[in-house]
Amino acid sequence: MEQSVSARWLKRYRAFFLILLLIVAIQLFLAYKSLDIVGGGSGSGFDAAEAPASPPPPHSQARVQPPTRTKLTAQQLGFQPECDILAREAISALQRAKTKDCREHIAHIACAIQAGRFYAPQLRSSCPAGNHTANVSLGCFKDEKDRRLLAGYYSSSKTSNSPAKCVELCLQSGYPYAGVQYGRECFCGYDTPPRAAKLPDSSCNTKCLGNAKEICGGFYAMNIYETGIAKFTAQLAATTPPEETKRVRIAFLLTLNGRALRQVHRLLKALYAPEHVYYIHVDERQDYLYRKLLELESKFPNIRLARKRFSTIWGGASLLTMLLQCMEDLLQSNWHWDFVINLSESDFPVKTLDKLVDFLSANPGRNFVKGHGRETQKFIQKQGLDKTFVECDTHMWRIGDRKLPAGIQVDGGSDWVAISRPFVAYVTHPRKDDELLQALLKLFRHTLLPAESFFHTVLRNTKHCTSYVDNNLHVTNWKRKQGCKCQYKHVVDWCGCSPNDFKPEDWPRLQATEQKSLFFARKFEPVINQAVLLQLEEWLYGPYTNEYANLHGYWQSLYHYEDVHGAGDDLARSIGDSVMRLSARQAKLDPLELIELTHYLHRDQYKGFLVRYRARGSTGKPLHLEMRVRPTQQGKLARNARFSKRLRNFEVSTDFDQKEQIARNFGKLLGPQSDLLLSYTLQANADSGAASHSYNLTLLWIDPLGRLQDFNELHVEDSTSDVINHSKTLLKHPITPGIWTAKLIGRNSIYAQLKFLIAPLAYYKGYPLAKSSEAEALNAGLTVALPEDFEMPVEWQQHLQTDDEQFTMREESLAKGKMLGQELHSWIDGLVGQFFQLRESCVVEADSEVSLPLCSEVPWSSLAPDPKSDVDALLK
């Protein structure tokens, strides 16, 4: 009877029993898999990536072929490599590198790494370790799930865990203690395990999964070892120097790029004092900035420019090479200084120079660097420190993974530092028998962003470790969501981040530095926002008077005739020459020579660019003039469309900065080699109670022949705040010169239309076009970017020219593309005159035959007084 009842219950509820069994099976499976989880979410020094792949089952071996490895031939490379290169990333770099020299450099390093003769496998730290000795076993200890003995860092590995591996990982991360548990787990910590938790050695009885001959703890039982380093504690900086303390002298190392001459002058004015020294490195490609700053040497005995210059790129190894070379130059100079502080044109002080000197005088011999403030293994992975990079062809090539040397702590953070003279002497003059420093120099010459880790890592592992202060004296305007857009992938095989420019809305961050030991802020760019700089200067030095000349104006050079000309100037010169001819014709003058193009902004609004040139009047006397020019694009918005009414700043440009949400081609100089994009601002929906809308739109790119060259599908969502969007087009270069049209259309209507100019070129690689073949190659681009089999929607046809019209215009465009000399200039002038408005002019010299105001007396001219950037005022 009982059996029949049981059978009846089992039969009635068998579905529930099956579900219960399934749940138990899933729980067991998840419990098993949870033991394989790597790194506890913090990264891992040795994880499943090191485990060999499981072999395929026997029955599948006949069908599944192993992936074939690309093998590069000597014919492909242009030389015979030293070895058969195996690393996939190295092969990729070799396939992409453009020059033979670069490929040879990559191959040489890849082969040396492959042979195990490039990096040092083990290094010895010389930072005092106290009573700690590496790999000393402290015994077996009882651990608890909720109160870990070593709570600093955790990782798990099914295949490679061992006491030696765990000690190496924890030492690298800066922990004095390492513990292995349950065969696969590694723990790191700062605190000595309590004696009360000591267990008999027999309680730790689980074999290591990385080495079955060793024991790796047990169930909540941990074998603990010393890593051989003491717990690191950064020094606390003194804030006030004792009485009668000798005041330090500072060497300001300015590493500059770009053309922001006036901002550099402004920075020098804020930092200058006769007792300090100013050593300036200008990027090798920046001829204008170097030439202009060189003029300061004859005026100021404590300002000098580096003669050995480097072409540096974001994240490049050349940045560290440049810094070390400049520091060595400073040591070899006859200047006396106690600290080096490196700054760029984007830095500006947030305290007066006297306060900085007081602070450093209170901390002689200390070294100020900023640590990353996160778990070290996560930092290593984020920075790519476990990868080898090679710099050549103005690119950082990633060529494979690497294992960092054992025995050292890895540290890093910011590449802006303030370091003492003794430490500078140590890193710039390594002794041949100093294996540690020699190996670290080699390691960081093949590291991404090396200056962000080199000084920190050297400090942590040498006798200078007791001088480490975790403060680089800077506040940086990090906005990770905006700043991490992989904007440097054209120069580095990595996704990098960059800080944002300070703007008035960021003022509270600057004010908050007042009570902190912070003396500089970055980044500032007056071409993006000058108002915050003015606010900062008034905060430091008092308010400007109402009589202060041109306080809200900012000028930045775009082109200068003395520059070393190359292909990069061809477009600016072509348009600048055209504006010069149009301006001279308007004034009834003969144009002679284009001198300079300068961006002009007033109250952070772009007012156009200034064209300074020489011309000849009716008397034959040379004249020197300047004209303000305003670029325009001819746009139309639909009047009755709700979307169009909220559309602002609808424009075509290049060089869109996703971080600052602005196209940096302020002058709208577009040519046959430009990478076009359209940007616009959609204003917030003013009616907060209205239903939210989304818009599916199409952007048509129509060339001067009336042909569709490309299109973008846009999906735009309503927002409660203004949103800036941009859309790129992929066109085949050279694109056709002439008047282009961008149309934003919906299903049945046109929302916006914009006509813009692609200007023909009058120069090729810095020289005037002299051959029809050269002109045709630049100015007669007639290819269509869309594939031949593209089926165009019928409703788009109404926006394009007919086939007959396109054929006629094609013949005309081909003829114009071959033009040279005066004929070419007339074509360019006819186009430029439609899209660049000539606003106002001035004359440089008095007693001129033209009745124009003096440039020194009009507020917009590049020759107008600008006392905020007048570095000569320091001489008075």
TrEMBL record:
Taxonomic path: Eukaryota, Metazoa, Ecdysozoa, Arthropoda, Hexapoda
Main location: endoplasmic reticulum
Topology of this chain in the membrane: Single-pass type II membrane protein
Signal peptide: none
Organism: Drosophila sechellia (Fruit fly)
Boundaries of every WSC domain copy: 134-228
Catalytic activity: UDP-alpha-D-xylose + L-seryl-[protein] = 3-O-(beta-D-xylosyl)-L-seryl-[protein] + UDP + H(+)
This protein's GO CC annotations: endoplasmic reticulum membrane; Golgi membrane
Alphabetical keyword list: Disulfide bond, Endoplasmic reticulum, Glycoprotein, Glycosyltransferase, Golgi apparatus, Membrane, Metal-binding, Signal-anchor, Transferase, Transmembrane, Transmembrane helix
Subcellular location per the Swiss-Prot or TrEMBL entry: Endoplasmic reticulum membrane; Golgi apparatus membrane
Keyword Glycoprotein in annotation: yes
Enzyme Commission no: 2.4.2.26
Protein name: protein xylosyltransferase
Key word Calcium present: no
